[in-house]
Task: structure prediction
Amino acid sequence: MHEWALADAVIQTAVEVAQRESLKKITSIKMSLGELQEIEREFFDTALNELMKTHGDLFSKTKINIKTIKTRFKCRACGHQWKLSDTEKTLDEETRESIHFIPEVAHVFIRCPKCKSPDFDIVEGRGIGIDSIVGEK
Amino acid sequence: MKDPRLSVIEKRLKNIGKIIAVSGGKGGIGKSVTSSLLSLALSKKGYNVGLLDLDLTSPSDHVVLGIKDVAPTEKEGIIPPTVNGVQFMSVVFYTNENPTPLRGEEVSNAIKEILCITRWNNLDFLIIDMPPGIGDELFDTIELFQGAEFLLLSTSSKIVFETVKKLLLLLQELNVPILGIVENMKHYDNGYIKNMCKKHHAPFLGEIWFDKNFENAVGNINKIMDTQLFKDIDGVAENIV
Result:
C-alpha cells in the first residue's frame, strides 16, 4: 500500500509544524491530491487515520479536507494544453500503475496529442500537496 | 503549497549506516559498473547493502547485475527487491526500459518521490549511482541525503580529471564529505591521479584496471565475480569499510 508512505509524509509534516509552532492540537489539514497520481482514497484515508492515532491527542480534533486537482498538461514544443482525460484512453493498467508510483513516468508514456512531443509540463494535478495546517496552542 | 514528501525522506534514510554517492561529473567513466560491483562486493563481505540507480534518464545498473523479472513490493510504501543480497531500486521498474525524457525539475520531483516511498531495510551501506553532470541531481543528492559521502571516479586522463576536479572543488566548497577518488579504467601507471589527490587533499581510494573480459561477464553475477575488475573493486571496498 504505497498510499501509506504518502499519508506518512502528510502526518510527519503536520507533526513538524506542531513542534515548530508549539501546537498542542492540529485542528485542520487542507491538502490536494493530483489526479495524475490516482491515489486510492480509501487506502489513503485509512492510512491517515491510523497514523494520526500514533501521536496521542495531537490529531484528536483534526479535520482533514482533501480536494482532487484535475491534471492539466502543456506542451513545451507547440504550446497545446490538454487534460489527462484526453489521453488516458491510451494508457493501459500497467502504465497507470507506473505513473501512480512516480508521476514523472508520464513523460515515458504520454505524448502531446497535437504534435506528439514528450516535452511537456504537468501544469497542475501532479501529486500530493499541503495547502494549510492549522492548530491550537 | 508545501511538499510533504520532504518531511518523511529523513525518516526513510535514518537507518542507513553510510550513504555513498558514486559520481565523477562525466559520463562514460564507469559509475554504473563501479556502483553495482561495489554494492555486490560489500554485500559479499556480509554487509546489508542497498543500490539506488539515480541515473533516471539512463538507468543501467540492472543491466550490469542482470536484474530482471523482479519488482518492488508494496507494504506501507515500496520495498525494493533483494537481488544477490543487494536491495535494489531503480526507475526502470516503472519505465519498462523505454526512453525517459525528463527536464531538471521533473528529475528532482521523481527523486523526491522515490525517496519518499522507498523503504530500505536496515542498511549498512546505500550506494547511489549518480548521473553525470553538476546539476539538479547533484544538488538534490546533497540536500536530500544529508551526510552522504562522495566517491569520485576518474580515469588516468588529464582531460577526464579536469572535469572531476571541478566536481571535487565544488563539493569541497560546499563542505560535502568526500570519501575519496578511485582511478578507473586504468591502462597505464602514470601516477597522475595519485598526485592530484595529494594536491587537492582528497584520499586516494584505489585503482581499477581496465578489464577487457568484463563485457562478457555483464549480467552474470558468477562471471562478474571471477573478473579482475570485481577483484579491483573489492579492493576499493576494503578501503571503504
User: Anything to note?
Assistant: Chain A has a mean pLDDT of 94. Strands of chain A lie at 25-34, 63-69, 72-75, 81-83, 120-124, 128-136. Residues 2-21 of chain A form the longest helix (20 residues). Chain A is about 35% helix and 30% strand.
